[in-house]
Design goal:
Helix content of chain A: over 70%
Distance between the termini of chain B: 56 Å
Structural class of chain A: mainly alpha
Number of strands of chain B: 0
Order of helices and strands of chain B: HHH
Number of helices of chain A: 7
Number of strands of chain A: 0
Strand content of chain B: under 5%
Structural class of chain B: mainly alpha
Radius of gyration of chain A: 20 Å
Number of helices of chain B: 3
Helix content of chain B: over 70%
Shape of chain A: elongated
Strand content of chain A: under 5%
Oligomer: heterodimer
CATH class of chain A: Mainly Alpha
Shape of chain B: flat
CATH topology of chain A: Four Helix Bundle (Hemerythrin (Met), subunit A)
Number of domains of chain B: 2
CATH architecture of chain A: Up-down Bundle
Distance between the termini of chain A: 67 Å
Chain lengths: 200, 95
């Protein structure tokens, strides 16, 4: 008789939250930088924000909020033992992550096309505050985009583990922790939307 | 408490309600941002934390967690808010 592997459900979740705190401080530092820079250049931030496409920003918010619904519902589904529904919901979460990144690619290529990128021609002739705004925009949405990419890959792994029966009704903490990560990345976007897209 | 070892199950209905509230709050933020700068700033400072709170509380199961985890999250968020508050004190009182 082999001993069951040691599992600590509460410990696993506390560990995940501790990691999320470090993520919070990583983005928190950038939010502090944003707040300080905006206090120094209020006018330039206001004008630069007009360059951003509010529609794309709001559309991406709706996509991420919906993906969070799918991710949370996937946990409920597997807790209730419906593996097929959980697989569908995880798949939909991945699709939302991909849609978000596609949207972001369209947005960034439009900016590049207009010469708006760090050291780009459009920013070289604009007031310094606007270059700071776009520097923060690319760093913060870029770092956030990397997190979306990581989360999408993570949910791809969860899809495989679900399909293979490694994640089950009585052992679903991996899916729950992946969900926690996804929701935190969603929360960060909730703050990015008003700071960049609605600041005009 | 032992029965809760595998976590509380949140009904789909609750999740849908939270999702609808999040979308509605986003709509309010967008409308307010077009009204005036004052409305934009005030809704940003109030509605955005409410949205984040809804995600933390329901989607991230915080409502159903033990007091220890709630306290940990509170300490982490308070630290961040303190940093931001101290930064604004520095900026506002600079000679």
């Amino acid at each position: 008789m082999s001993a069951a592997p040691h599992k600590d459900y509460q410990g696993a979740k506390i560990g995940m939250w501790l990691f999320l705190f470090t993520e919070l401080m990583l983005f928190g530092g950038l939010f502090v930088l944003y707040a300080g820079s905006r206090a120094l250049h209020p006018e330039e931030f206001h004008n630069a924000s007009r360059e951003l496409n509010m529609f794309l920003g709001v559309a991406n918010t709706a996509i991420l909020l919906t993906s969070s619904l799918f991710a949370a519902a996937a946990v409920t589904a597997i807790q209730r033992g419906s593996k097929k529904l959980a697989l569908w919901l995880v798949g939909l979460t991945i699709a939302c992550g991909a849609a978000f990144l596609a949207n972001k690619a369209v947005e960034w290529s439009q900016k590049f096309h207009h010469g708006i990128y760090p050291n780009g021609p459009a920013l070289a002739h604009s007031p310094p505050g606007e270059a700071v705004f776009f520097g923060l925009y690319f760093i913060m949405t870029g770092l956030h985009g990397l997190h979306i990419l990581a989360g999408t890959i993570l949910f791809g792994v969860m899809f495989v583990l679900l399909a293979r029966g490694r994640i089950r009704a009585d052992d679903h903490v991996l899916l729950e922790n992946s969900g926690l990560y996804w929701h935190l990345v969603d929360v960060i976007w909730i703050f990015l939307l008003p700071l960049f897209y609605l600041a005009a | 408490m032992m029965g809760q070892e595998q976590g509380h199950i949140i009904p789909y209905r609750t999740l849908l309600t939270v999702w609808a509230a999040l979308l509605a709050l986003t709509g309010l933020l967008v409308i307010a941002s077009r009204l005036s700068l004052g409305a934009a700033v005030w809704t940003m400072l109030t509605l955005t934390p409410v949205k984040a709170g809804l995600v933390f509380y329901f989607f991230m199961h915080l409502k159903y967690e033990r007091p220890l985890l709630k306290l940990m999250v509170f300490v982490a968020l308070s630290t961040l808010v303190t940093f931001i508050g101290m930064l604004f004190l520095d900026i506002s009182f600079r000679p």
